[in-house]
Amino acid sequence: MPLPKLPEDPSVSEMIGWIASRYRMSKADLARMYQTTQSTIHYWAKTGKISYKNLRKVRSSFYYLNNGRDPHADERRCEGCERWQPVGSFREGKAICRACENKKTLEHYRKHREEELKRRKAKNWYNRKAN
Ligand SMILES: [Zn+2]
């Protein structure tokens, strides 16, 4: 039976489970549909781990079969802030958005700077002692 209200962010196993029971599809059918293997289908459902490309496929089929529209069709979920962001906010081959990338760079810089200051302090102490 159709879901009363389409969830915005169903898990992979929810989506696959719903399709399998609604359309009486076996793992072999699902594997054919997503052009993958049965063990991959099993892995997705069990771990929720799926590539961005395959998640697109699963979401697109799930919303299509529910006569709905993927609310995040033009977005990708950032692995850093875990928010849905426009696809354009990701650099090629990156799983985190630009904002998260910038934050990481800044954190790296701060950490590096702190270490540099500590090193300098230790050096000053040593020089003072030597004089
Ligand atoms: Zn992010």
Q: Can you lay out the helices and strands and say which pair or pack?
A:
Blueprint: H1 12-22, H2 27-33, H3 38-47, H4 52-65, E1 75-77, E2 84-86, H5 98-130
Antiparallel strand pairs: 1-2
Helix pairs in contact: 1-3, 1-4, 2-3
The structure holds zinc ion.
Describe this structure in words.
- By secondary structure, the chain is mainly α.
- It has five helices and two strands.
- Strand 1 (75-77) and strand 2 form a beta hairpin.
- The longest helix is centred in the C-terminal third of the chain and has 33 residues, at 98-130.
- The protein is elongated.
- The model has no long low-confidence stretch (mean pLDDT 93).
- Bound molecules: zinc ion.
- Zinc ion binds at residues 78, 80-81, 96-97, 99-100.
Q: How confident is the prediction overall: mean pLDDT?
A: 93
* Apparent shape: elongated
Q: How do the strands line up in the largest sheet?
A: 1-2
Associated small molecules: zinc ion
Quaternary structure: single chain
Question: Gap between N and C termini, in Å?
Answer: 84 Å
Give unreliable regions as ranges.
none
> What is the total tally of β strands?
2
Assess the beta-strand content as a share of residues: under 5%
Largest sheet: 2 strands, antiparallel
Question: What does the radius of gyration come to?
Answer: 24 Å
Helix/strand/pairing category: mainly alpha
Helix coverage percent of residues? 55-70%
Count of separate DSSP helical elements: 5
